[in-house]
Amino acid sequence: MDKLWEIRTPRPEMVQQLAREARIDPILATLLVNRGIFDPAEAETFMSPRLNDLRPPFALKDAPEAARRILQALVRREKILIFGDYDVDGVTSAVVVHDFLKSLGADVSVYIPHRVREGYGLKPEHVTRYIAPEKFNLVITVDCGSGSHEAVTAAARHGIDVIITDHHRVDAPLPKAVAVVNPNRPDCSSGFGHLAGVGVAYFLVIVLRKHLRDTGLWKNGPEPNLKAFCDLVALGTVADMAPMIRENRILTREGLTLIQSGRRIPLRALAESSGTGYESMDAEGVAFRLSPRINAAGRIDHAELAFDLLRETHLHAAREKAGRLNTLNSHRQRLEKQILDAIDHRIQRRPEILKNRTLVLWDPDWHEGVLGIVASKVVEKYHRMAVLFSTRDGMGKGSARGVPGLDLFGFLGACRECIEDFGGHETAAGLKVRSADLESFTEAFETTVRGKSRPEDFIPRILIDCELDLDQITTELADALERLKPHGVGNPSPLFFAKNIRVLSSRVVGKSHRKMRLCQNTGGRSRILDAIQFNIDPDRPKPEAFSRMAFRLSWNHWNGQKTLQAVVQEAE
Prior knowledge:
By secondary structure, this protein is of the alpha/beta class. The protein contains 18 helices and 18 strands.
């Protein structure tokens, strides 16, 4: 598929002014301006985020009401249940709230539903079959609950209060809970809509600590240090692909430092099992090494395995549990490949479906636990809105992933008449559609997307920050680029452009990676740069030159040494 190369062109005077006033390299200034940062003070905060820069969370709608009700439960020694989601965001949220309440002596338990057998979110049957019989007085949802109207009503009938903490987009009316702490509810003006579920849960804990402080609970002793939870907040935030801006950036930066310290034994064991040292763990390592293994529990088996691991305090036991997650993750990878191969085969047999802007596919044998990841890979490969369903017992349970820049959640909302239930974000959602309605949904979804998008929206773009000759690359620049981390949605790793590249040497490593040494035909001397290109076709002839190349810069750590290398994303 042809791709559109776009080089960003920030106004030179803005770049020069920021470079001069902030006393930074013009290339670094260019990258900051590209990310909407023009003020020197804002640039310094961005490059050196601190916990003190967090905005107070008390503007979160309903957070004070939630804190007061939890405080009441603590005083009365009521039974509290934390009801979570089965992904990394939900599991880390549950650990944060559980461990904080447990430290206060609360009578608190956790319930995480089974993805396949129970599905997403708090339901009336959870109330009637478990919560009411076990005589819980208060339920706190984490990373879910904003659409659980019937369950909240059922709980009220049994005299059980519900506090919802969530971050998924939600329309009015809201469930009639004691509190709905969701920065994305229509009437919340806190400005915290970028938070992941674990960020919302963490902010509620901060508000609760303030209420407990006001009661004089810690007047004769130290308060709990909530900084200790930042590693879990970072884990959930990165895994949920929350925008790496503002509070998310601050909490993730702090959390990565904690992960690199090895303080939390489960994360040490998990890094070990993934073949990565925790000392160098960054956001990319969290996203591609730690998160998939934690997610594998809820996708293939039960997320309780992940919850139990994250609360483990003994290294031997943590290693054993991390090994089980590693095995589940390998199984997950095999299932994904089977489904993706089947989808590729269908498209090869019916290439005309690529004339559509959407791909809606289903199969009774597809494992619903991995459909979200497969849908993401379908979007990446075919650049179409993708919705995949597992169809059993007359119901399609699906995962949807959107093309960047388009509002998937809004498109699904416009097809509400064909959908039993759905929830999610602008680029990712889960949904249910009756098997009998799948054809109608497919047609309605394509019609909606086609009517609210342009053909160019479905041409993959390579968005480049700036042109960078190889001679401009220095160790000082590479070190300066480290200040832009952590990277993620809203703050991507800088992508550079260079032309007239000569390949001095090339060899395939592993199964499909190419190691190279590059230089540039500039008419004079050119520095020689090590490079690697991932996931290439090993049967293609070795390249001799690239007319143009899009690449990232990184430090390659190996055998105690670090060398500068280009990570080639695209080359022609």
